[in-house]
């Protein structure tokens, strides 16, 4: 059987601040994120299957990533759930509705690990998450590969 990789690109806008960081990213700032999701599998071979020839329907991949990532993080302020930031989160939550609190420092790297867990858990049988690439800026990105995390 032939293994094929499919990639779909997504984008979302989000702000974050790095709690306790010793540089300018400790301040609240935003990014235009670009997320590339690559899955792999063998195309369906059953001629009676409406998905014959597909590893997975791009629409299904789009739905999974939109539900798990884009709808949650788009136009959100992402902050680490830390004791030192509790008061800030309380004040911001009184004014703004889309604050996402995570149990990790919301770096590009940590966000990728979180996204990988969320997406992989939702993929159909026979389809595996191969890699993710998250652009934080036009020239800066992080990558996650399944082969590095087995």
UniProtKB/TrEMBL annotation:
Family of the protein in this entry: Belongs to the PTPS family. QueD subfamily.
The protein's name in its UniProt record: 6-carboxy-5,6,7,8-tetrahydropterin synthase
PANTHER family the record matches: 6-PYRUVOYL TETRAHYDROBIOPTERIN SYNTHASE, PYRUVOYL TETRAHYDROBIOPTERIN SYNTHASE
InterPro entries per UniProt: 6-PTP_synth/QueD, 6-PTP_synth/QueD_sf
Pathway info: Purine metabolism; 7-cyano-7-deazaguanine biosynthesis
Root EC class: lyase
Matches recorded under SUPFAM superfamilies: Tetrahydrobiopterin biosynthesis enzymes-like
Superkingdom field: Bacteria
EC number(s) stated in the UniProt entry for this protein: 4.1.2.50
Catalytic activity: 7,8-dihydroneopterin 3'-triphosphate + H2O = 6-carboxy-5,6,7,8-tetrahydropterin + triphosphate + acetaldehyde + 2 H(+)
Keyword set includes ATP-binding: no
Pfam family, one: PTPS
């Amino acid at each position: 059987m032939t293994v094929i990789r499919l990639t779909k690109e997504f984008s979302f806008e989000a702000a974050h601040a790095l709690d306790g960081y010793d540089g300018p990213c400790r301040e609240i700032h935003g990014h235009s994120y670009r997320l590339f999701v690559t899955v792999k599998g063998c195309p369906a071979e059953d001629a009676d299957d409406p998905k014959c020839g597909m590893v997975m329907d791009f629409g299904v991949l789009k739905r999974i990533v939109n539900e798990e990532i884009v709808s949650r993080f788009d136009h959100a302020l992402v902050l680490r759930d830390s004791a030192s930031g509790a008061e800030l989160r309380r004040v911001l939550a009184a004014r703004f509705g889309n604050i996402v609190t995570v149990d990790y420092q919301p770096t590009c790297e940590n966000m990728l690990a979180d996204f990988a867990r969320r997406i992989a858990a939702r993929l159909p049988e026979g389809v595996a998450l191969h890699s993710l690439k998250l652009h934080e800026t036009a020239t800066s990105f992080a990558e996650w590969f399944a082969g590095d995390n087995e």
